[in-house]
Amino acid sequence: MKSFAIFASIWPLLAWSQTVHYDLTARRQRLDMSGRGPVDFPIAINGSVPAPTLEFTEGDQAEIVVKNDLPDEELSVHWHGLLLPNPMDGVPYVTTPSIHSGESLTYRFPLRQSGTYWYHSHTEYQEQQGVYGAIVIKPKKEVFAAAKDVVAVISDWSDEPGATIIRNLRKDGDYYLYKKGTMRSYWGALKENSLGNFLSNEWIRMGGMDLSDVGYDAFLINGRRESQLVAAKKGETVRVRLINAGASSYFHVGLAGLPFRVIAADGLPVVPIDAREILMGMAETYDLVFQLPDQLSYELRATAQDGTGFASAWIGDGEKRPAPDRAPPSLYEKMEHGHHGGHGGGSKGEYGAHGGVPSHGEHTTHAEHASHAQHMGHGPDSAMGPVTVDRLENPAPSQFPADSHFTELKLVLNGDMFRYIWHINGRAIFEERNIEVKEGDVVRFIFENQSMMHHPMHLHGHFFRVVTEAGPTSPIKHTVDVPPHGTRVIEFRANEPGLWMLHCHNLYHMHSGMARVVKYMSYEPRTEVLQHAAHDPHNHDHLYTMGSLEGASNHAQLHYRISSTWNEMELRLEARERSGWDGEGDLFLRRWIGNYLSFFAGATTVDRTFRGLLGVSYLLPFLLKTQLSIDTQGEFRLDLARKFQWTSTIFTEVDVTLRQTLESEFEVSLLYGPVWWWAAGLMVTESSVGAGARIQF
Q1: Which domains does the chain have, with CATH numbers?
Q2: Could you tell me which of 307, 471, 456 has the C-alpha nearest to residue 398?
């Protein structure tokens, strides 16, 4: 059994604390989580998904022994939101060695805080597959006493293992739109009187990505699609500790349409706020209190933001009162800055009237202009929308002294949803690993989201203040949602020396590159961590493949692609029926420069000759793919490609090849494709009409 010593400075504290011990064992378990039949890959902790709730009291010493009974697979556990010594953080290859098969690791750390937190694996995709659970730390003196105190761990579940999900997303960012039934089309836009929005989105090169990347098979609360959360009587007050342990789903959480009071966020108290709904990003926690008005059972419902499903848990004892259904989000909303997500980020008040970054002493000015009534005393029927960080306020001033030494860094969050890569400042973590900070500084990160997806950004080992219109009482959190084309500013005191992950808590965004390690300049990593760092998956650019095979009475084609973050190798072999069958092919090595531009070199066969090739490709507005090349015989070639999605299952693909002196070619198809992996229909070339099918793999 491996164990780590705690720093000598905290031993006097431990001498007066109570040690609370837990044993956690991870094993594979065949489970049916979705109701569609059992699967073999889930990882249960002590036989359950989610893992057991760990309960402590502020000031306790936690002693948690984690045993890995997984065959031939490493394991890790990260204690999300807890302030603890860096070696205990549980991120393999960064702070804590992995737990190898058959081995155990003992985590020991003092509980320096109270509130609602959680724990999860930081190894591969184990979090998606069951390694997550709640942590409840009671304060030494309870402020909000409730008759019942319950935990609701919300999660998303797929009957595919996480490694399969990321492979599918890297094949095609639209992969799961078929499963979710959220494919955008011209016919769908016409039916919703939104053709103008649809065309506008295509003009800005916005494809069919959704509010969520993955098509899930179930949404769960405490591991079940529907369950009784707690029995309670009329007049009793229930405290519900909400935890979004989803891998890549935001949730709208409501309680049978009735008002409730939010009293804490990310474990820390907030100025109480009345609400009917919370929009929770991945890894956020909220505490709410609710007094049963009568002898009914009320539905706590967590609805996935993309509208594809929900989970239910019932509070009370009597006739059931369900939550109202939420209208599904429009697939044809115009993609304007800050509009896609349903709530703003980077408001004018946050940056001043000119949109600039606030100066170190400007926060008090924000407070003078922000009405306190916006954050306090909302009636239950407030029309301000769901609770998010923008409506939270810290009970006490949170700003740093004006004479603090501030260090400021802009972090641009972006990616390519078609190729499914994600990065910070244009570089994935394998290209740029560390952000260095100086101990004692107040560090300000400016998150600028240039993508159409939400990014819940989490900093390990710290709390930070989110600069909002609340000014000096801006809320304190450990995870913050950065909405599409929104901006968030966070600030924290660099007083926890170590190596700490900073990453998007969308599991698939993080593993695709949207992460960094915050490194204190004064901190020297331990030898055993440095020895393992070279094997860190974050340091490697992984390869993914995609292929298609098309066969028709007049045409046949094989296309195969091997890709990493910025590089691709493409192979295309084609045979056409003219007066007889003849063939040609391309082999390209491509380097992407941003989302739209790439350069390539390779070889082509045309007119029974081999030629070298150099070229450039660019994605034009309306999603028109263009590719211009010149071969070793000085011949220019222009390739154009465009897809038209007429309905959710019927589409046309147009491919045109224009050559300088040789015969030009085109193919126009009309295909029926109910799922991603196959389609069939008509295929028209410059010389004939045929019928056939295509499979993708």
Answers
A1: 2-140 (2.60.40.420), 348-379+396-539 (2.60.40.420), 544-696 (2.40.160.40)
A2: 471
